[in-house]
Design goal:
Length: 121
């Protein structure tokens, strides 16, 4: 089971941007989420880290970042109903590696938009 984080365009400021520019903003945000999540993800051999990818959501004006490993959800949420992860393999990593990365980037969404607006066409 994989873990997904979807970024959607819900802001009125997006009306100032063309579809192509909106896509560039979302692409940039998705890539930054991917990079942060790879840093924050628990890793022993690196399989979980290398499975974290940003991709366009098929047929939508949205991008998603997912960790496509069987155990990604277990690591993201710190366990399941039966077990809890107590000791992550790498200090400074742990549960909510993808969620927290998304929240961190989302806090700066306006900066991504302003950067695109200042970039011109």
């Amino acid at each position: 089971m994989s873990v997904k984080l979807v970024i959607k365009d819900k802001s009125d400021i997006f009306k100032q941007l063309t579809a192509k520019r909106i896509d560039r903003v979302l692409f940039s945000m998705a890539n930054d989420i991917q990079n942060l999540a790879k840093i924050k993800a628990p890793h022993l051999q690196g399989h979980l880290q290398s499975s974290i990818i940003a991709m366009r959501k098929p047929g939508k004006k949205a991008w998603m970042v997912e960790a496509n490993m069987e155990y990604a959800k277990f690591q993201e949420f710190g366990g399941d109903k039966k077990r809890t992860v107590k000791n992550y393999t790498t200090p400074g990593t742990g549960k909510l590696y993808l969620t927290n990365s998304g929240k961190q980037v989302a806090k700066n969404a306006l900066l991504y938009i302003k950067k695109e607006l200042n970039a011109g066409f």
